[in-house]
Amino acid sequence: MTVTASARRKARHYAMQALYQWQMAGASLNAIEAEFHADNDMSKTDVPYFRELFHGVAKNLDEIEGAYTKHLDRSVDDLDPVSRALLRMATYELKNRVDVPYKVVINEAVALAKKFGPTDAFKYINGILDKTAAELRAAEVAADRK
């Protein structure tokens, strides 16, 4: 499958939902992933990217949270579950997928927050990810701001 922007968007969409489910239900990653494959048409989804995001966040959770929590004005546990899932997923991408421009990572997370998050959560997520990107992708952000 040729990877398209829409296939990546679907991968992020499903990964965010899977992370939400993992946070809320505590089921195993493999069980949640199998459920997503059974319940959703994944034919137009970048499935390897979905798998990488979902398993990558869970595997590197402490490192990921350490990168963005310093920018929060509350504890991670006080975040709504959608925002928490999005911040984790986007921070994973900022740290591990330098092939994806930081603006794309932030824009995709903001779009998902607008669709699934509480009112105005997208503004908060945008601010946190902006600061996180400035640290994790300092050269890219600096070059973009010139």
Quick synopsis:
This protein is mostly helical. It has helices at 5-25, 29-39, 47-59, 61-68, 81-96, 102-116, 121-136, 138-144. α1 (5-25) runs parallel beside α3.
| Biggest sheet descriptor | none
Q: Which whole number gives the mean pLDDT?
A: 94
Proportion of residues in β-strands: under 5%
Shape summary:
globular
Uncertain ranges: none
The helix/strand class is mainly alpha
Please tally the β strands and state the result: 0
Order of helices and strands: HHHHHHHH
Task: Provide the gyration radius in Å.
Answer: 15 Å
Task: Quickly count the helices.
Answer: 8
Helicity level: over 70%
Using brief descriptors, characterize the structure shown.
146 residues; 8 helices; 73% helix
Structure description:
The protein is mainly α and 146 residues long. Helices cover 73% and strands 0% of the residues. It is built from eight helices and no strands. Helix 1 (5-25) packs across helix 2 (29-39) and helix 4 (61-68) packs across helix 5. The longest helix has 21 residues, at 5-25. The termini are far apart. The mean pLDDT is 94.
